[in-house]
Write a structure and sequence with these properties.
heterotetramer, B: mainly alpha, 15 helices, globular, D: Beta Polymerase, domain 2, 4 helices, 27% helix, elongated
Chain lengths: 369, 423, 220, 159
């Protein structure tokens, strides 16, 4: 007589595919997953506490380090919250510039997500390197804009800190021309490949009702054909002046999530072209008379959210009238999108564990903060 | 003195120079005077055998070092980068440096490990890999031994590597390693059957199990006569050597390094060596059995043609590894039992019919046979592929949602809206 | 399972195989004979006669030539550039630093001030080991005295060496980045070649006249 | 554009369901009494008049003499958002609130985070453990009276 018993394995925090220092306590029955318990906190840096003793501008440098593959989007979300709190009227050119930067960052983030999907599927880094190669060109643009590639600190209350240099615009054109080709290449590796389609389609299906109830947002939600994009539904900055598609997929499986990301990256390129048409010369930030270096907002609170690359990225700021926020809360999409991790994984095989996990596209810097 | 050793060029050279008197050491240049006096032929035999093995094993090690460098350069180029180029000309010494580094690392044995098995496993792993090479003819007269059951020998010896992986995994006392070991057993055992059956067609054509004989029987390369056999054997050997898309055992993104997780220092080095040697070994088998081995135009020595074909197969393996992701375990086993197994049966039946029709084919008839085999191969691959895909389509349908989630279908009454909040 | 998509994947990787690699080799590049002779502006034969040792090395792909990475003029590097004459010791930079790593000790009585009497600066330490190069200190400086640097090769085994002192800042090569200093951003400016001879020209504005200062500050 | 519910209108509408639950309201926010929060949340989700199916954010603020738990909620159907607030732990003692995990599954990790960093107990939470910090960590760091490591060092130096 033979008996079987479940086996519990700790995956992470030191594991090559956990996108950082994530830890999962997974119980297997053979190769099948029967229970998952995520364990957080290995990258907890207390950003929210640190923010309470820094001025509003200084907190900006902390937001760079939360989701470090989409710093520009973090900057944007934080600055929107500050502007809402202080009732700052932003300069139009600054807003267009930060929209361009944010959409470039979205492309970069989606490239990373897609590259890591195929890496998790077992390709030995080839697609990842193709994706990263294209991302490097985008980071070069960021270096032109603000002198840093990852920790940008580019935005300021009411706009951006400095206008783009002259050499930025031709370089941007070149990169924008290249991005669709790179996406085609990735898609050829991804969506046509029978191994990938047979491994990702029909795995980890989440129902739209469940996802909305679990506060899941972003590409994950749109892969379940829920047309919820804050750029469209609640346009911040100048997104109301821009036409763009929201790619939707109905199957809500791992493949759909990545298909949506690639299509969104394509849409971002179109958005940037539209921004380039509308951008006009002018100041990129309000004068120091309107927005001083040390902001002292009226006591009150403000919640501003943007459509980040991972989902709804929100900042909740409470002011007590001093130069530092009384409370700074980050609505981190990476953390909240993990809510349904157990539902996604239970019943699938070990091979699909990290694929489903990677399809959430989480970033440990944002999960733990 | 057995004859099969005597036909070996290297062995013969060493033996005749050592042995005192032997009537067999008369070559076209006349009688060779040996170093040893008469009566010490046994010593010459032993020494010659030992030297042959020494040259042979060190040759494999050198080839492994070179192939690691070559693979890394190729990985680099496939990934649009350079690959190692710092240490020595074109980075040739990179893997030498790696080997030295591996040797000087600390040798850690985990406290939960079964010490004896933990230490035996690397030896068990590398042993059969070297044995494979002993029967492969690398050129005219360049082989260690030409067994008349060479193919069977290879098939039986390669099964040992599965045992080594399981022992390594079990002895590590590590749960992730055990996953790797269990996967290895499942994959290796499953793929041995299509692997063995895919060679049956070759045997029918060649009429011999000796690898030297198979090479000599190939009037045209067997890849043309046996497309299905080649296809199945190539995939099966990818599975046997744990290469993508069948690298479940070492699945980097899931298991870290699988059964190698707890190995360090030279034990890890031996596993690594065995893995690359196995890659070379399986490409050598493919070259010998399907690509007509050392045969080629006479302008260059036969060894060169063998090496050229070997390198081409190696590049093909690297290319596949760089391009394709991994299959899931159920898909891999399904492919073995529901796909490749059936394909080999089709191949055997088709080949058997052809061999019965033309027992002693002329050159023209061989080409006709090749054409018929290709006509059988392509539709059967497509049909089997379609059959395997059907199940996937079903699961996709299950996930579809009928009604879209309502978003923005209603609006809030204007009296309830916080007007001041608007821009 | 077996289909054309897999072949398409093979095609993509093959296409990338024959593409030019994107690798930038830093700090030096391995080159062959032709490249190195071109770098020395001779033809291969002359180069072979002139420097046979290097030429043989280059045939084995072991010769190297140094490489500079192209970088933006706004690059926020860690060799801080500080113009001591312009600094009034107001410590705005220290206040704006999110990490509080700039230490400034002053005493009244300096003479180098631009606007009004300033303080003599005793200590001006920047702990680069903890710096995150956000550039807020540069943005805070009202007199354009502090600039980000353009270099990035300051590593060492001792953590204390990473504290840049006042003397070091004075002696350093002045290679300022154009982060928040748009005057450095014209086409001719190259941080590796250009030098600012007259540091007083580095500012965004000239020294205002007494009348202007009076209007600016007293009548406010 | 997502419409923001006027706090006063929302309070009036909610008072129709449960008149005791509303503590106060202003133009943007509604303060709900802590003991009624679960019922109010069920109403907000299930009543088609409100239809708040998405919990954007759940967090807490330490106002020294009490804690305030803030719910940002959105109705996808109506594309409307609202802010619900609750004061708990008057006088900083025994902050306890009913968990809303059964209403919105998305509150799961956010409530654990609030428990971890503020020490507000959520009754009925299925997995009421700390999220980021380890079990047995002293104190709840985002409380204003929490003494950080740096502060403790400095106070020791001062004597």
């Amino acid at each position: 007589m033979s008996t079987t018993e479940p086996i519990t394995v700790n995956l992470g925090p030191q594991h090559p595919s956990t996108h950082g220092v994530f830890r999962m306590r997974v119980t297997f029955d053979g190769e099948e997953i029967i229970d998952v318990e995520p364990v957080f906190g290995y990258l907890h840096r207390g950003s929210e506490k640190l923010a309470e003793e820094r001025t509003y501008t200084q907190v900006l440098t902390l937001t760079d380090r939360m989701d470090y593959v989409s710093s520009m989007l973090n900057n944007q979300a934080y600055m929107l919250a500050v502007e809402k709190l202080c009732n700052v009227e932003p300069s139009p050119r600054g807003v267009w510039l930060r929209m361009i930067a944010a959409e470039l960052q979205r492309v970069a983030s989606h490239l990373v997500a897609t590259g890591f999907l195929i890496q998790d599927l077992g390709a030995l880094g080839t697609p990842l390197i193709y994706a990263m190669r294209q991302r490097e060109y985008i980071l070069d643009l960021f270096e032109m804009l603000c002198g840093a590639r990852i920790t940008n600190s580019y935005l300021r209350p009411g706009g951006v800190f400095m206008d783009a240099p002259d050499e930025f615009w031709p370089a941007l054109d070149k990169v924008l021309n290249d991005i669709p080709n790179a996406l085609d290449e990735l898609e050829e590796l991804l969506s046509g490949n029978e191994i990938i389609t047979s491994r990702t389609q029909g795995v980890s299906i989440l129902l739209p009702e469940t996802m909305v109830n679990a506060s899941i947002t972003g590409p994950m939600l749109r892969a379940g054909s829920v047309d919820w994009d804050l750029r469209h539904r609640n346009p911040y900055d100048f997104y109301d002046q821009i036409n763009f598609q929201r790619p939707l997929h109905s199957s809500s499986d791992n493949f759909a999530r990545f298909w949506v990301r690639i299509q969104e990256a394509r849409e971002s390129v179109k958005i940037i072209y539209q921004c380039l048409e509308r951008i006009e010369p002018g100041c990129v930030r309000p004068s120091f008379h309107d927005v001083p270096r040390l902001i002292r907002p009226e006591p009150g609170d403000a919640y501003a959210a943007i459509e980040g690359s991972k989902g709804e990225l929100g900042f909740y700021l409470v002011s007590d009238g001093s130069i530092a926020p009384y409370r700074c809360h980050v609505r981190a999409p990476s953390l909240i999108n993990l809510t349904l991790l157990r539902e996604m994984l239970v019943g699938t095989l070990f091979n699909d564990l990290f694929v489903s996990f990677g399809s959430i596209d989480l970033n440990m810097g944002e999960v733990d903060r | 003195m057995t004859d099969f050793l005597y036909e070996n060029v290297i062995f013969r050279l060493i033996y005749c120079n050592l042995s005192g008197s032997s009537d067999k050491c008369v070559n076209e240049y006349g009688y060779v005077q040996g170093i040893f006096p008469a009566g010490f032929e046994w010593l010459a035999f032993l020494l010659a055998g030992f030297l042959l093995a020494f040259i042979f094993i060190n040759g494999i090690l050198g080839a492994v070092i070179l192939s690691i460098w070559g693979e890394r350069r190729l990985y680099g180029r496939f990934q649009n980068r350079l690959g190692p180029n710092r240490w020595g000309p074109w980075g040739l010494f990179s893997s030498v440096a790696d080997a030295i580094k591996v040797m000087f690392k600390e040798d850690v044995v985990p406290s939960d490990a079964d010490r004896l098995l933990f230490n035996i496993a690397p030896i068990l792993m590398v042993f059969p890999v070297f044995m494979i090479f002993s029967v492969i003819p690398m050129g005219i007269g360049t082989f260690v031994v030409d067994l008349n059951v060479g193919l069977l020998f290879i098939l039986s010896v390669t099964s040992m590597s599965g045992l080594a992986v399981v022992i390594a995994a079990w002895a590590s006392g590590n749960r992730i390693a055990i996953f790797s070991g269990l996967r290895a057993v499942a994959v290796l055992i499953s793929y041995e059957i299509p692997m063995a059956l895919s060679l049956v067609g070759v045997l029918m054509f060649a009429g011999t199990l000796s690898l030297g004989g198979i090479v000599e029987q190939q009037k045209i390369p067997f890849i043309l006569l046996q497309p299905l056999g080649f296809f199945v054997f190539f995939l099966a050997s990818l599975a046997e050597i744990n290469r993508t898309p069948f690298d479940l055992t070492e699945a980097e993104s899931e298991l870290g390094a699988g059964y190698l997780n707890d190995y360090s220092s030279m034990k890890f080095g031996i596993f690594f060596l065995a893995e690359f040697a196995a890659t070379i070994g399986s490409s050598a088998i493919i070259t010998t059995v399907f690509l007509s081995g050392w045969k080629g135009p006479d302008i260059l020595p036969s060894q060169f043609w063998f090496l050229l074909k070997l390198v081409i197969v190696l590049i093909a393996i690297v290319w596949v590894r760089m391009s394709w992701p991994r299959l899931r375990i159920d898909q891999i086993l399904e492919l073995a039992w529901k796909g490749l197994f059936e394909l080999t049966l089709i191949n055997i039946v088709a080949t058997a019919i052809l061999v019965t029709i033309w027992p002693n084919p002329t050159m023209g008839e061989i080409w006709i046979m090749a054409g018929i085999n290709w006509l059988v191969a392509i539709p059967s691959v497509i049909v089997v592929g379609k059959v395997l895909r059907r199940k996937d389509n079903k699961t996709i349908q299950a996930g579809r949602d009928n009604e879209p989630y309502p978003v923005g279908t209603e609006t809030l009454a204007p009296s309830l809206v916080n007007k001041v909040g608007e821009k | 399972m077996i289909g054309l998509g897999l072949l398409k994947g093979l095609k993509v990787t093959l296409f990338n195989f024959i593409r030019k690699p994107v690798t930038i080799q830093y700090p030096n590049r391995r080159v062959g004979l032709f490249t190195i002779s071109a770098a020395n502006s001779t033809n291969p034969f002359k180069f072979f006669i002139k420097q046979p040792k290097t030429a043989i090395k280059s045939l084995l792909n072991m010769a190297t030539i140094p490489v500079k990475i192209p970088q933006s003029s706004r690059f926020r590097g860690n060799e801080f550039t500080w113009f001591e004459d312009r600094c009034t010791g107001c410590a705005s930079c220290a206040k704006f630093c999110p990490l509080g790593i700039i230490e400034i000790v002053t005493q009244p009585g300096g003479t180098d001030g631009q606007e009004g009497e300033s303080y003599a600066i005793d200590v001006f330490d920047i702990d680069i080991g903890r710096c995150m190069f956000c550039g807020l200190c540069v943005e805070a400086c009202p007199y354009d005295a502090l600039h980000m640097g353009t270099l990035f090769e300051r590593s060492g085994p001792v953590r204390n060496n990473l504290i840049v002192t006042k003397e070091e800042l004075i002696e350093n090569q002045k290679k300022p980045s154009s982060w928040y200093r748009p005057q450095f951003e014209d086409d001719s400016f190259n941080p590796f070649e250009s030098e600012i001879d007259n540091h007083r020209q580095a500012g965004r504005h000239e020294k205002p006249s007494d009348e202007d200062m009076h209007n600016d500050w007293v009548n406010r | 554009m997502t419409d923001e519910w006027n706090g006063n209108s929302l309070a009036t509408a909610l008072a129709g369901e449960n008149p005791d639950a509303i503590e106060s309201c202003n133009r943007t926010d509604v303060w709900v009494k802590g003991e009624h929060i679960l019922q109010i949340c069920f109403t907000l989700r299930d009543n088609p008049e409100f239809g708040f199916d998405l919990l954007n954010s759940l967090t807490a603020v330490d106002y020294l003499d009490y804690f305030e738990v803030v719910y940002h909620i959105t109705s996808l159907k109506k594309n409307a958002s609202a802010v619900i607030k609750t004061k708990v732990g008057q006088g900083r003692n025994n902050p306890v609130l009913a968990s809303v995990v059964n209403v919105w599954r998305g509150a799961d990790y956010q409530e654990r985070e609030v428990w971890d960093l503020f020490g507000i107990t959520f009754e009925g939470h299925p997995n009421h453990k700390r999220l980021f910090l380890w079990e047995g960590y002293p104190g709840h760091p985002l409380r204003k009276d929490y003494i950080t490591y740096d502060q403790s060092i400095n106070s020791e130096e001062r004597g």
